Every structure is written in structure tokens, then in C-alpha cells.
Structures
1.
Amino acid sequence: MTETVSPAVAAPEPGSQDVVYRHKLTTRVTHWINAVCFTLLLMSGLQILNAHPALYWGEFGADGDRAFIEFFASRDGDELVGHTRVGPLTVTTTGLFGVSNGSDGDVRAIAMPSWATLPSFRDLATGRRWHFFFAWVFVINGLIYVGASLINGHLRRDLLPKRDEIKPRHILQDIWNHMRLKLPKGEEAKHYNVLQKGAYLGVTVLMLLMVLTGLTMSPGFNAVVPGLLDLFGGRQSARTIHFICAFLTVAFIVVHLAMVLLAGPINEIRSMITGRYVVPPEDKS
Ligand code: HEM
């Protein structure tokens, strides 16, 4: 019999490990396909951004509208200086955004560094091919994950917070526990905590927004479903929301990986590969 994060509970023998079956096969396979797709989509997306590293709101860009997010370079004597501007705030980001070393080691004026783009050198056409191919793999994989989670009860049982968990007191307690790096042990560790559920549901919504705004940028898709352009207020707004969602997903991944490291990377990653998870024992004290 298989179960996910709500495991069958037979009390472990004293001294033995409490092992539960934590993740179903569909969750595990779609998770890793998603991780590969997201990495390739992000890197090829940054290659596409390099072609015009400025983001606008509304219908039009470039033709006179001032961008509200922009990556650019300026000269200070012989030196190239990189800048990132968000609204009225401009910060120097030489070495990362605006100016960085190319794959040959030379300093150059380019929005995103070569190590972060696919391909690593400037090639918009190849970047778009990678992006559009993996976008469809990502969509199909996402549909399988959401469909399977609805059918096998994963969404309802493991991801949607229970009524008690959304009480402010419970959420504040969870935030406090995370701030003290007091991670769940024993029975509590057998289920996602409310912050985990919120983060996983949140990132799923971000993925959906990313797909919808991506489709909004496609003239071919606009011809079939024109309503999306109205929904996002124009192609430039859709492009900006697409970029912000990608940025927020990167923020999620940084925290996600930090939590995996803190919770015990071998046990955590093994559970996402084999499904089996060793429940951390309760503290004796
Ligand atoms: C190499 C990178 C990654 C590693 C090592 C990793 C690791 C893990 C692990 C160990 C879990 C299970 C956590 C637990 O059982 O408490 C998990 C769950 C999850 N991860 Fe990742 N992850 C990675 C990348 C990503 C990416 C790129 C995304 C999405 C953008 C993502 C989204 C999720 C979600 C939504 C879940 C919950 C899945 C479910 O139960 O339905 N992960 N990840």
C-alpha cells in the first residue's frame, strides 16, 4: 500500500528507525522533471532578456515608454560599470548585472552574466528554441502533477492547510519555530507544516502565472485566445509579470534548498528519489 506525507503509523520498535513512505511516484518524477525544466527555462529566459534588458507596463515597450526595471552599462573613464534600476532606485551591479565577464573571460556590457544564460554566449535564436521546447515539457509535466494530485488526494490531504493550521496563533508559532531553526520532529515531521504548504501552493500558483503570461506573449496564441492580453493589460505587462514570477521562484528555490540542507539533505533528497523518509526522532529532553 502506498501513502504520501500522511503515512501509515505503526509505532517503531525502540531503537529502530521510523521510516515512512512520504512521496508518491508521480510527485517524485514530476518534481525532478520540473527542477530540470525550471533551470533550463530560467537560463534560456535570461538569454532572451539579454536581447532587450528593460521591462515596461502596458501595451508598448521601447517606443518612448520609460522602463521601470532595467539592466544597463555606463562608462567611468576606461572602466565599464553595470547598473540595475528598479523604478527610481539605481544600484551598481558590476560583475553580475549590466557588466560581467563573458565566457572568454573578457569584461563586457551585457545584462545577465554568461554563466547564467543558455547558451553562455549571445544567441537569441538558440535561447528561444530551448525556452519554447522546455516550456511545453514544463506545461505537460505541470498538468500531470496537478491532475495526479487532485485524483490521488495529495492536494487535499497533504498540501491544503487544515482549518486549525490557518489560525493566526498556529501560523505565528510556525514562523517562530522556523526563526529559531526548530524543525519538526517525530509525529509532526510526518506532515508538511503550514509554512511549507503555503510555499508549495504559492510556487504552484507562480508556475501557473508564468505559463499564462508566457502564452500572452505569443502572437500565435493571442490569435486563438485574445482574452489573455486584456487580462494582463498588454504584452509588456505580461512580460514584466513573467520576469517577476521567475524572480520570485528563484527566491523560493533559495529558501527551499536552505530548508532541505537544514532538515538533513540526505534523508530529504532520498525521500524525493525513493519515497522513503526516516522520521527524525523526538528530542529526549
Ligand atoms: C535541485 C533542486 C531541488 C532540490 C534538491 C529539491 C528538493 C526537494 C525535497 C527534498 C522535497 C521534499 C520536502 C519534504 O518532504 O519535506 C521537495 C519538495 C518540493 N519541491 Fe523541491 N527541490 C528542488 C527544486 C525545486 C524546484 C526548482 C521547484 C519548483 C520551482 C521545487 C518545488 C517543490 C515543491 C512544490 C515540493 C512539494 C512537492 C509535493 O509534495 O507535492 N523544488 N523538494
2.
Amino acid sequence: MKKIKYKIIICLSVIFICFLISASSLSTLNAQMPVNEELNHFSTNSFNRFIWKWNTTEVVSTESTMNSRSPAQTVDSVGNIHLAWEDVTEYASSGSDKDIFYKRWESSSKTWITTEVISTESDQASLYSSLTVDTAGNVHVVWNDWSSYGGSGSDYDIFYKRWDINSLGWTITEVVSKDSTGSSNEPFLRTDKVGNIHVCWHDQTNYAEAGTDWDIFYKVFIGPPLAPKLAFIVPNPSEINTVNLNWNDVIGATSYYIYRSMSYIWSLKDISSITEVTSSSYIDTLPSEGIYYYVVVASNFVGKSTHSNCQYIEFELPHVQEFVIISSLILGTFVISLVILRNSRKKSKMK
Ligand SMILES: [Ca+2]
Ligand SMILES: [Ca+2]
Ligand SMILES: [Ca+2]
């Protein structure tokens, strides 16, 4: 009886110690969690707000010898700093009127490029710029311009230009304020995550019953859609000649072009699409055995996206050798079953 009592006491003590240990480890974990979260917050942001400090001043307009004013600035996703401003310096055939100058601090070389003139089609005052960089790396710039260009008339209009990632150069000037007959001033632009460019400015035009006072006008510049993301092809390898292709729905896309090649697709040069579809999936039929590579391109009324990531499928019909092995196994099993059956019948007859 005493022994049983001791056993119960020992058991209870063990349970109580276990409970204490787990409770203390839980409380330690809870106490640590906020600290870890805070550490993660700082590490993901990779800066410490308590040691912010201004660097020493830099002069950016180093090629200018006359007034440089009204700067506009943006920083892109890789850390390049883009600056535009109005400048009266006679520089690179800009003339003595105000022009929009541009400079970029490149994060790779950690240096400023030499000044470029953006308002090269303007022969009158160009001022008040605003600029933004989209996710593909195109630099979009708008400004106010007095030049009579592309039917804009001799008043202030909103002009637009882009440093194009495909041509690696500036596009020619376009007039944004085409619907305005009065003065259009001080534009501001921003890009969204799918690359559309949103521009606003103040305008004196009596447009859509706005009256002849200053009103805020807005326009959006829609670009081609972003590239789709093509999912892994499964099963891979495959023994059937149909391939299921799936990709994400791209905002603003109205159709998709499918490209197939027997070698890895680095570029769409010299490749034609095999089909155009409006949904975000496609079942392809392969002509013969082999390894096939795919990419997809999204499209809308403006143009086509760059191509998606490249995925592949290996198509191989079941081999004759495998067929023979499988057939032999089935036949062998059948023969053995037959022999066992005959033997068992013989034995039962003998009895
Ligand atoms: Ca000029
Ligand atoms: Ca005008
Ligand atoms: Ca008004």
C-alpha cells in the first residue's frame, strides 16, 4: 500500500515539474516574440531611423552656366536618381530660352551622367517638369511648354517624353493637353504598378463645362500590359502529346500570344506565335517527341508586353522495351496462375 502511495506521489511530482517547464518556456517565447519582430522590421528595411543624417550638398547642374530652377526628382527601383529641371543655359543646341534638362545618378557606377536636354523639339520656353519611372525602367517626363508644336498653338501646353527602355533613347515630344484651348500649366505625373502614366495639371480651358477659371485636368497614358508569369508545366516528362499551359491574368491584357520552340527562348526574334488566345490557359498539341520550350506574351490595343519566363516540357512516348517488360510480367503472372490452378485441380482429383 505504501509502495502505491509513493508511486502516485512520484507520478504527480513528475507531471507538476513538466507543467512548470512548459509554462516557463512558453512565457520565454512570448517575451522574445516582439523583440524578434522588431529586429525583422529593421533588417527588412535595412536602415535605422535613429542614425539618419544629411550628406553634404552636391551641385547637380554642373554643365549649366545660367539659371537652373524648378527641379523634379524620382528614384527608381534599383536606386538610380532621376532629376529634371528648367534651365536657360545655351547647352547642346538648346538655345537661350528655358529648356528641360535631365540628369541621372546611376547606382551601378555611383556617378551622375552628363546633362541631357529633353525639350529638343521646343523653340519656346519649357518649364515646370515632373518625372517618374515605371517598373520596366522607362523614364516618363512631362512639362509646360509655350512652343507651338503638333497643333498645340502659342499658349502653354503639357508636353510629354519618355526615355524608352527598348530603344535606350528619348522618344519625340507628344502633346498631352490636346483637348485644351486655354493655358495648361504645372503638370504632375505618377506611374502605377502596371505601368500606366497618370498626369494632372491646372488648366484655364472651358472644357466639359469647367468654366474659364483654373481647373484641374487629368489624363492617363496607357501602355502595353506587363509580361505574364508562366506556371511550371505538369506532368513533366509527359507520355501524352497534349500540354497544359497556365499563366496569371495580366491587368489590362486583352489577349495572349503563345510561342513554342525546340530550343530555350531567350528572345522572340525569328519566332512566330503558334496561336493567340483570350484566356489565361491553353492546351497545346505536340507534333512529335522532344523537349519543347514555351513563353507567353500579353497584348492590348497599345501593344505587346515583353515575353514571360520560359518553361519546358519533355514529351516521350512509352518505349517498346517498357511495353515488352510489362507484357512479359502480365504473361508470366498469367502462366504461373494457370500452373497453380492446374496443380490444385490435380490434387483435388487425386483426393
Ligand atoms: Ca530651347
Ligand atoms: Ca494649346
Ligand atoms: Ca471651373
3.
Amino acid sequence: MKNSTVEDKTALNVEGLVKKYGKEKALKGVSFKIEGGDFLGLLGPNGAGKTTTIKILTGLTKLTEGGVYYYGRDFSSHPGEAKRVIGMVPQQSNLDRDLTAFQNLYLHTILHGIPKPLRKEKIDEALEFAGLREYRDRQVKTFSGGMRRRLVIVRALLHEPRILFLDEPTVGLDPQIRRTLWEFILKVNQVKGTAILLTTHYIEEAEKLCGRVLIINRGRIIAEGPPDDLKKDIGGYVLEIFLEDRIEEEFFSSREDALERLKEYDHSCKVREVTLEDVFLKLTGRRINV
Ligand SMILES: Nc1ncnc2c1ncn2[C@@H]1O[C@H](COP(=O)(O)OP(=O)(O)OP(=O)(O)O)[C@@H](O)[C@H]1O
Ligand SMILES: [Mg+2]
């Protein structure tokens, strides 16, 4: 018989999270699981509750109701143990701009109790992994946006967490740097095997990176699954009809059916493959990015 070890358990189990700020509920019962090595995306518009979820899962804010379990252990009663297995990259970068890359990482090794004889080696490895070896002794204020993001990510990995939380990791970056960062984040998941929970309101980011996506709206998970499955559920193809004051959408399971229908309209029309934005629109009547 197999021993029941920590390894056998779900990495993270989130049950019925509710978060109230005053009378307002920012989260209204959010539940999901992360298994080892998963790449999960939390996709939703501004104010949906993405950061609130991550803050609860990393102990930065308290939940009002519900439960969070890392490898079967209750986070609220074993916070220290859980913090050893999680890493966090916040929405707002919290690097010290006046310190060098090395010094920023060194502070983290102290905070996480990494033994002194191991610190330098781990930091050098991290800088190498991030492609920042030659920038080791430069002040962070001289770094580009993309370099800073890579530095914050490897900092969060220094204590070798099993689950990494990334809150809007590519917001504000130009499209080309965003793509480079996507490759870097995928490398963390694939090479290190770290499970990732990433929040984003970029449709393409969720589609390209995540094996599974949770779509969140106004504090509730409204859809969950691999991006392709979520798209197939609404049809796969969309016919956009450009009316004077709005765009109407009709969904079809094949391009041929959509093109057939297009012939019935006098308006300007377009057939294209659906995206997760269409999934969101179908479920909520609104767009993720307005
Ligand atoms: N400290 C706070 N006090 C009061 N209300 C808050 C606080 N933090 C968040 N909220 C509210 O909770 C809701 C969810 O906010 P949250 O920051 O989790 O959204 P988000 O999905 O991360 O949005 P964004 O895409 O803009 O980062 C919003 O309505 C927000 O105004
Ligand atoms: Mg946020």
C-alpha cells in the first residue's frame, strides 16, 4: 500500500472563499484546486476579485469565510508551514530601487531563513536563470520593466516554493517584452515544475499560458476549464454583425455554418474564431477589457 504522504495531497484546495470589505463582498464563495505542476489562470476584469483572492492565499489579508488548505493543512492554523511552499509576485513591484539586484535578492534570503552559506550560490543561480547575471551589482532603478519583472519572479523562487502566485505579471509592459516574459514564466513552470496561479485581464495571456482558466466576475467563478474547452462550449466560431450602434455576435460550431449565416445579412459582418473574451461576453453580457 502507498504511504499517505504530503506529496499525495492536492497542492492547494480553496473552499468557499468569502471576503467582505465593510458591507461589500469582494469575493462571494470562490472554490478551486491546484495540483502539483498545474498552470492555472484567474482571468477577469478590473475589480473582479483577483488580487483579493491572491492576498488571502498568501496571508496578506484575512478571509471572512471559507478555507484554504496547502497539502491538506489548514492555512489559518499553519501559516508558517504554508509560507514555505508558496511564492508571491505582487501586482505592484516591491523591489528596492536603490539596492542592487544582488542586494534585493539577499534581503529575501534573510527573510526566508535561507542558511548563510547557501545564500550567495542560490542568488547567483537565480540571476543566471533570469538572464540577469551581468546586472548583479547594478541598482534596480537602472533596470527596464521586463528586467524588473524577471528579478521579482526569481526572488519569489529563491526559497524553492512549490506554488507561485503571479498577480498581473505583465501589466504595463509593451507587447514584445510581454511575450518574452511569457516564455520566462513557462520556463519556471516547465523546468522547475513549480505550480503557477497567474491573474490577468489579458485574454491572450490566459489562452497562451494557462492549462486551465478560472473566469472570475464580481467575486464569483463563472467558468472553469482548459481555454480550448471553454471556447468550444460556446461554439468555436463567431459571426460579428456590425450594426449602427453596436456589434452583435452569433456563435457557431463550424466556420461553414457561420459563413452560411453571414449571407443572410446586408450589414457588414466578420467570421472569426472565438476567444475567451467572447466566452466572458456570452456569460456576462460585458467585455473583460473595456
Ligand atoms: N482594501 C480594500 N478596501 C475596500 N475595498 C477593496 C479593498 N481592496 C479591494 N477592494 C474592492 O474589492 C473588489 C475586488 O478588488 P480586487 O483588487 O481584488 O480586484 P482585481 O480583480 O484584482 O482588479 P484589478 O484588475 O483592477 O487589479 C473591488 O470592488 C475593490 O474595489
Ligand atoms: Mg488586481
